[in-house]
Write a structure and sequence with these properties.
single chain; 94% helix; 93 residues; mainly alpha
Length: 93
Amino acid sequence: MRSIRKSAAMRAQAVVKQMESLGLAEYVQYTQNIRRMFWTNFLSGMARGLGIAVGFSILGAVLITLLQRLAVENLPGIGNFLADVVRMVQRKL
């Protein structure tokens, strides 16, 4: 009977050590502090939005540069397609 209690106590200690290594107590404290959670999520959302805007701008600039170079090359199929796109955009504006 003592060996069962001893092994159960050792298992319980191992579980406690694993939970401590996961940082569960810090996470619970974090979730209970509403103000801290709000600011953390707000700032991470702002960073994501900024990253998306910068990434889209860079991608758009690269795409426009490539399309301009293709238009300069005056490739038959692509040149006609780009001319159609430009006409459609000008009609919409």
